[in-house]
Amino acid sequence: MSAFHFHSKSLLVSRRRLLQVAGTGAAVAATVGFPGRLLAADPLKVAAIYTVPVEQQWVARIHKAANIAKDRGDIEYVFSENTSNSDYERVMREYCEAGHKLILGEVFAVEDAARTVAQDYPDTAFLMGSSFKPDDAVPNFAVFDNYIQDASYLSGLIAGAMTETSNIGMVGGYPIPEVNRLMNAFMAGVREEAPDAKFQVAFIGSWFDPPKAKETAFAQIDAGADIMYAERFGVSDAAQERGVLAIGNVIDTQADYPETVVASALWHFEPTLDTAIAAVNDGSFKADDYGVYSFMKHGGCSLAPLGTFEGKVPEAVMAKVAERTAAIKDGTFTVEIDDSEPKPS
User: Fold this and answer.
1) For residue range 169-222, what is the model confidence (pLDDT) as tens digits?
2) Global pTM value
3) Is 41 exposed, middle or buried (0-12, 13-18, 19+ CB in 10 A)?
4) Residues 89-121: b if buried by 16+ CB within 10 A, e if exposed
5) CATH: 3.40.50.2300, 3.30.70.260, 3.30.70.980, 3.40.50.12780. Which one for 9-145+269-293?
């Protein structure tokens, strides 16, 4: 997913500094000493900071999970959207000063600032989308990511069975691990059903630019693609206009494109957030990697129902999808996590 991320020189230097500090302080307990709550039933004050609109796929799933927890009465929830990278630290500090005990967000472009804020507010828990791992130097800063390669692979099996030209178009935001691993898993699934498949791969340099994604998709369709991997908004619009199929990512958009979107790999943020809420409530929240809670075996991802394409996908491949789903869940089949940049082939 999610927000803009560069491995800048300053970021890497700071990262090394954090790791050095973690090394020298290894004897320090990693668990945050959050004060016990007077009433366990009191809703936890949660704030989220998003760099894009809440309708953007990745953020929409976090927002949905937070609202579900709010409706259950587990949390109070406020959020800021379209927060610029330059303003991110200020907004984080304001939410901390306002007494929010769990801060959510995506800090792919603001790692240094976010971790500095976390150090300044040791009694606040931070659960942030990040390409980096947690470290004991910032014991109240946990990370997550959308590891939905399991569902992406399954959607690739369906795409491989549905393509007639063996020419697949793929349009992503940026070639970073959060995007690459999903594309690579999808491509692996396609190749199982269509070994001769060719892939057109493009990145638009934005997390939310539907017109640019649409134009890029048009170019790939004009070059022979008959199925589009819609990692970004705008791709399914192009597929619909040109009469080709699309595979969705993170959210299910079939209701908007009933004759276009065959299947989608869905991300469910609920297991990630619910685990964090419980940890804050019982005082055990610490620097940890919550990425595993996006795996299918933890309920963090799934393949969307076929819906309008029920009966249109070959029965044999759907039997394989069911078999592989069960194997993924019981641990007898593992989808490779490949974070390398996918290349056209």
Assistant:
1) 999 999 988 899 999 999 999 999 999 999 999 999 988 889 999 999 999 999
2) 0.84
3) exposed
4) bebbeebbeeebbbbbbbbbbbbbbbbbbbeeb
5) 3.40.50.2300
